[in-house]
Write a structure and sequence with these properties.
elongated, 3 helices, Tetrahydropterin Synthase, Chain A, binds zinc ion, alpha/beta, 148 residues, six-stranded mixed β-sheet
């Protein structure tokens, strides 16, 4: 049996503001995020299974990540809970605000996404890594091997 990595790419649009940041990211602004989800497993060997030869059905992975992440964060505003910008958005009655218990940086979002996806995966499949592009030239990565 061979271990195989399979990756699916997701795209979502999200605004954020970094509370107390010493650069322009303290202002409310948006990114076109690109999230790569890479899973590790062995292709299903059962000849009678509809998933024969698959580590995971890409369609199942799509539904899982859409439900856990995309449906919540796409076209939303991610901000640190209790921050000044959070209070202002609340006062203005903004919709689609996602308050988070951490600064919504690429790095922190990755750790959060890993904690959401990992436990939700089917048996025999594990999260190998995540890559989150915040811009075309800037990304962060979470690797299971870095987080034993
Ligand atoms: Zn930003």
């Amino acid at each position: 049996m061979h271990n195989i990595r399979v990756t699916k790419t997701f795209r979502f649009e999200m605004a954020h503001a970094l509370d107390g940041h010493d650069g322009p990211c303290r202002h409310l602004h948006g990114h076109s995020y690109v999230l790569d989800v890479c899973l590790l497993g062995q292709p299903n060997p059962a000849p009678q299974s509809p998933k024969q030869g698959m580590v995971v059905d890409f369609s199942d992975l799509k539904h899982l990540v859409n439900e856990l992440i995309i449906s919540r964060f796409d076209h939303a505003v991610a901000i640190k809970q209790g921050s000044t910008i959070h209070q202002r958005l609340e006062a203005e009655g903004f919709e689609r605000v996602v308050p988070l218990p951490f600064q919504p940086t690429c790095e922190n979002l990755l750790a959060h996404f890993a904690s959401l996806i990992g436990p939700a995966l089917p048996q025999g499949v594990s999260l190998h890594h995540l890559r989150l592009h915040e811009t075309a030239s800037a990304f962060a990565e979470w690797y299971a091997s870095d987080n034993p």
